[in-house]
Amino acid sequence: MKDKNCGYCMRGELLEKFGIYICDLSVSTLILFKEQSKRGRCIVAYKDHVSEIVDISDEERNAFMADVTRAARAIHKVFKPDKLNYGAYGDTGCHLHVHLCPKYKDGDEWGGTFAMNPGKVYLSDEEYAQMIEQIKQAL
Fold it and tell me: Can you give the pTM of this predicted structure?
């Protein structure tokens, strides 16, 4: 099931507003979040347009959480954050997804909830490509 107004479903221009496709995982898509004030921030989006984790079977939920874990391991390996925060929101775009937000003790917002889109740090296309390659290699 896909929603034609959803960047996670349709990709293309809708996704490019906030993220860059990295790769497909077992039941989800891994996306690099363009705003990189938390270096290595990614999103794991479920393959289908469902709103809640309770809308999928236990088997699919376990596979989705395995994808989240796989992505988290890659982020830890590449970026070595002091902590990785996990955010599951979606009250404006009702597509099941989890934000993986690396936090660093010497960075901003340490000890607090991360800002959804602070709009502070955007990278060059080359820098995004390098990050994506590092993440893919770490998967």
Answer: 0.91
